[in-house]
## 1
Amino acid sequence: MDIVLNADIILDLCLEAQPGHAVAGQAVKKHLARRERVWAYVGDSRWLLDTLAACVSGPDLATRRRTAATLLAEQTQACQWLAALSAEGPVFAAENPELERLLRACSRLPETARLLTRDPELLAHHPKAMHPEQYLALPDAQPTVPFIDLSVQQDHLRPILEHNLHTVLHHGGYIMGPEVKKLERSLAEYAGMGHCISCASGTDALQLALMALAIGPGDAVFVPAFTFMASAEVVSLLGAEPRFVDIDPLTFNMDPRCLESAILECLQEGKVKPRCVMPVDLFGLPADYPALRALADRFGLTILADSAQGFGATMNGVMACQLAHITATSFFPSKPLGCYGDGGAIFTSDANLAETMASLRVHGKGADKYDNVRIGINSRLDTIQAAVLQAKLTRFPQELTLRRQVAAQYSARLAPHARTPYTPSGLESTWAQYGIVLKQRDQVEKQLRARRIPTAVYYPKALPFQTAYAHLGDPAGRFPVAEEVSRQILHLPMHADLVPEEIERISVEVIQAIQTCQQG
């Protein structure tokens, strides 16, 4: 649960060395040790500074205020600041306006949040108020480990996030506002690509790219057999035929040898024309672009990379999205670079393709929105989502480094007990997910659930065996690697802000679960 520090508690923290003030510090330290959020209310700042200045020593008021400011900065360093919003303004009719402002601010927090205070009136009349001694009496519990923790990331970015969001609210350009173009320039520069076209989702990014390539009935697009439904779905939506390709047994990405066989089989059948290869940077690891590009060049195919999980990945120091003709990515909230809703983007260095995709995302517009030169769709990235992504991009390189460190710690602990991810030399994954391969996957997953360790399975069924593709008639055993991996892969909590203690706890529980299943 979150706790909000009433002004009296913050004062206690600053005067902790004096008699009667220590219990507040003990409660706050206990809460922080549980990796829970602590808030301080912005509206209390002036009162705190004036009151604390009267409590500290110094030759004059200016010196005492500087001392008070330093103490406050130190003691609230671990706090998130609960900003005052317009709802906290009109409180003049309240019996206690200052208290009313605080309570209105607290109402924005989760229902479980509590207000830490020693104020007798608050404790007597407000159900969310809690004395520090009450908090210390709560039973100790092991902190919950979330599968993906966006709240910690938000804590790091709160000032710039709130600034960006309020800027959009004030200028009101909710559709294609200035933040959208700014983000597209930032993303293109980061990726080293000539053009970035933002859109409403990662799925739309794939569809827009295929539409720009004029993919349709009579065309074949080669898709990995082990990936999310969206990769093949957009092909089918346009009337083309997805041709599934088995995956490499080490990387789980599209196997170039299987791709060559699939292309030759397609040509021999003569029913549909091979047009496009759609490798997926699965779990953030770049596909084997040199081998895939050689095949694409040989057969005259376009490479459209589905890098929904892989934006920011590199191959020999080069951004992976530079290695395909077109790259599509997703900004779904759980992605390494995610917004607070749906969003996506397309990257290319082909100016003509970029112009076509920019037109397609807004109903095929030409010179203006009422000049429609082609049939398109409505797939604009919301300005608010662009504002969120612009804030997150400031921390993104650091987060990729942190994800790689988390993955390295996992592998060091788990490699003796399970098959851990393989990363070829020269490749840097974004580590969108961290998966291990286990023959007793389902039993281990059940054990971890009982141990309160969240897990996920990406993906429990190979794409050719989804009900939607039953009509293709692919028999069991046609994609042996994809089928085996879908039965054995298990994903563990992964995000940039996992700390070593959490990684160790998860690893210990995983090892014990594996050993229990092996013995049973």
Note: The first strand starts at residue 3 and ends at 5.
## 2
Amino acid sequence: MSSPEPAGPPEVALGGRRSIRIWLLAVLIVGAALRLVYAVSASGIFHPDEIFQSLEPAHGVVYGVGFRAWEFAVGARPWSTAGVYVLLLAALKAVGMTEPESYLLAIRLFDALIASTWPWLCFRIGRALRSPRAGLLAAALVATWYFLVLLAPRALNHTFSVSFGLLALARLLERRSGDGPRWAPYLDGALLGLAAAFRYQDALLVAGAAIFLLSERRPRELLPVLAGSAAILLGVGLLDHFTWGAPFHSLFTYLHANLVENAAGRFGAMPVWFYAWQIPAAFGVGALLLLLLPLSGRRAWRLLLSVGLLVLVAHSLTDNKQIRFVLPAIVVLLCALACAADALLERAASRGSRAAMAAAVVLLVFWGAASAGRSVGLTFADLGIFAGQPEAAAGPWHFRRDLNRSLERVGRDPDLCGLVIYPYGGSAGPARLATTGGYSHLHRAVPVSMGPLAAEARSFTSHALLCPDGKGRRMELPGFVAVAQVGQCAVARVPGFRCDQEAARRFLAPARWTGVLPPKREDLPR
């Protein structure tokens, strides 16, 4: 077994243990505040998955209506993530929070609170890798990086998978060979299994943890870790049996869709070197800190190579690439950078405590300024989202916020019979349904279509939402009169409209939910 690397003296730079605790508390408060404050206003869309893989199926189960994405039509997703939001929506409904403005805010705050634990978990990782000071630096980097703030209030499976993965890695790193109770490796494996249960791709963390244990000469823990992971994944198979009708149905369907049919490739194909360029670019001038990586230390490098590199290489071999897909690798990289910064502070301490303190302040201010600067002018193209579409040039912080608020506004109109949406000027089409808030924001059992308004939908389309394109141009529909303005979007309706209830019922039928399974074709009204 390799011996632990010596930690720097506690007096260096950020003080002793008590000072570390005070600084850590401040960092955790700042990280939580950034995430919670942003969550209050983050009613737009970062990615369609936060709506159609989480909130829409949950709204369908709890309220009976919701758009069904193809994954939930064929069973290519387990109900682990969506199931959490089913329980959350049902609990909010039970206490009277049944308006979208209230239950969506509660969900965003819930997700942001979970994401607020990541700096604490990274403190534990950095402390185990090198020293409490390295842990503090890791917490500060993670707490203030703009991308993790942007992602915090989103109803994505990363919220859960990364949380469980970081907790497992922290526990593995904190425990040396032979330390702790015999059941501890089983629990660590179960946590890694939970990461994979919420996002199948994060099963790579199980493999990475196994490689790391072997590199640390801890083979006795390997089988318990794998057994703990396997137990949780068997539970996912059981969940599939009760929801999709067959064990591991979602896993096999997901693998067939992506490996055989290349379903993910439909959303854009990026070059194999995408992450090698995009991750440093996402750090902005903060990428200069990568020059410190050689100082990280052997244990940090073992973690970086076993977990981080494995995740990066595996995702680099797929067509569809987004920064969020490799979050575990990026967070591990930030922890390694914190260890390198700690080594730099230790060297600065040889010139006196003031020099070390000055170096620490410069490092943290530099990273914070780099993160803030990179967040300004950020576009979806920078993150690998909406590749090849006009929306790629839009900013992600409040994308489609006015549209989603318009959905909430029109959903309260008692005369609403049916709705057509033009989310981006005259450019519409069914594909742009993915960039709306769906029924989880509309919260009304009425038919919804995307422009152009089809002839067969005119008998029940009483209202329209008209939002501008990138040049401020907005669609004008003959016969519709604007009755409200929500930000840049207009709510319009047809005066004196007479609703064809039967046609509306037929059009709405595919969005009706009577359980987790999609309706059979013969059960739909004709």
Note: The first strand starts at residue 419 and ends at 422.
